[in-house]
Amino acid sequence: MRPTEIRDLFDRELREYARPDGPGVRVERSGPLVRQVGGPDDWNGVVWSEPGLDAEGADAAITAQIAHWGGLGHEEFEWKLYSHDGPADLGERLRAAGFAAEPSETLLVAPVESLTGLPGAHPPAGVELRVVTDAAGVELMALAHERAFGTDAGRLRHQVLTRLEQAPDDFVALVASADGEPVSSARMELYPGTAFAGLWGGGTVAEWRGRGVYRALVAYRARIAAERGYRFLQVDATDMSAPILARLGFTALGTTTPYVYRRAR
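^ thats the sequence. predicted structure below, dont judge the formating
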């Protein structure tokens, strides 16, 4: 398939016909938009807008979403904007309405079969990868996340624990440890009925970067995705991860920018 065909498939399967990404959340059609709504610790936001959305429709949709989440009492929500979404100035309209743009990420996709046998994809000496199945493993994941990114992992704890307890079949969590200390963690969302599985996380503590941990985590998840019949792996990649993934064979389909609306207190 050509990159534009894969992007169209991605838009259709994971955005227009999105499925809830965990227990307790729901996906709703709101006029020209599709949104996910959950509790305060879940991801809340707009995942898709109609290709023909024009300036007038965009302004009305933005106003409606601010009112919707305000009515629910949520402190914030996100509008996940892709570079091929319209109208062309949608990002400017979101900013004018009070949204703040966070760093853009690159939308990358690769065929699963091309990643299952990556050369050098075994973890480096001294590092063990294991699947997370319980609360103790979640704590190790959270600790690795906090050490790698320098940010609080409270939301990650909630989301992973909820998935393991209530809907473990379409979710894979991994932690990489060296001498018993967590050095990286990663997740994979499996989207039943679609061609895609999504890779998330993979942040590695500074002293273990550049030693193959990230590559090993990608290959491990690719093998699981292949076993379950998925065709493509998808990643929203940071500037740090994108060059690594490109070297592994991922193709860029565009960019995605989180626009976050936070209620004034």
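The helical segments are 3-16, 55-72, 90-96, 135-149, 154-166, 213-227, 242-247.
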